[in-house]
Amino acid sequence: MKKRGFTLIEMMITMSLVVVLSAVISSLYITGFRTFKEQMAIATIQSDGQTILDTMTTDIKNGLSVEPTYLTHVSDANSIIIRVPAVNSQGKIIYSGTNMLVDHIVYYYENKSIHKIVYADPASVRYAKNNVNSTLDNKILILGFSYSPDTTSATLVTVSISSEIKVGTRSEQIQLTGKARLRNHI
């Protein structure tokens, strides 16, 4: 009767195959995890940028006009001054006699950051954030505004945001664009 079993060579071949398969599976897992992490980082930056873009376009759509200047601010390719109706806590436009009260919302770009300042009428619900300089994001490469037909008589504003994120050993460029028509110009 012959003894059945594995020879040393068969064991070594089997162990070699197990090691190679383990290395391949580990490599696939690590690559998949790294790709997932990179895509999550990109999605987060895109989501944050889209939220900022949506906030800006909503304010522009609520705007009566783009102001060429207000206090020390100037509407240009990197900043915008939006004249919006002052509203009360019920969301109704506030009047003083027959005159509509207005607030001013300023967005501007400085040192890779997007800033928002609200200059509100004291009767406006926005007065709680009056003259507060809020930084909306500090990882933006470019914030741009283009006005149609021009800054002083704009009815349509295009907002462009560009950002870059380093993921692993490479850089990803993210660009978002939105258009908004000022109220009463639909």
Key traits:
186 residues; alpha+beta; 5-stranded antiparallel sheet; 1 helix; 12 strands; 30% helix
Quick structural overview:
The protein is α+β, with helices and mostly antiparallel strands and 186 residues long. It has one helix and twelve strands, in the order αββββββββββββ. The protein has one helix at 8-62; strands at 65-66, 69-70, 73-74, 79-85, 95-96, 99-100, 102-110, 113-119, 133-137, 140-148, 156-167, 170-181.
* Beginning-to-end CA distance, first to last residue: 96 Å
Helix content: 25-40%
As a percent range, the share of strand residues is: 35-45%
Low-confidence stretches: none
Backbone structural class: alpha+beta
Radius of gyration: 28 Å
Helical stretch count? 1
Major sheet: 5 strands, antiparallel
Shape: rod-shaped
Number of strands: 12
Query: What's the pLDDT, averaged over the residues?
Result: 91
Spatially, the strands of the biggest sheet line up as 1-4-7-8-9
The helix-strand sequence is HEEEEEEEEEEEE
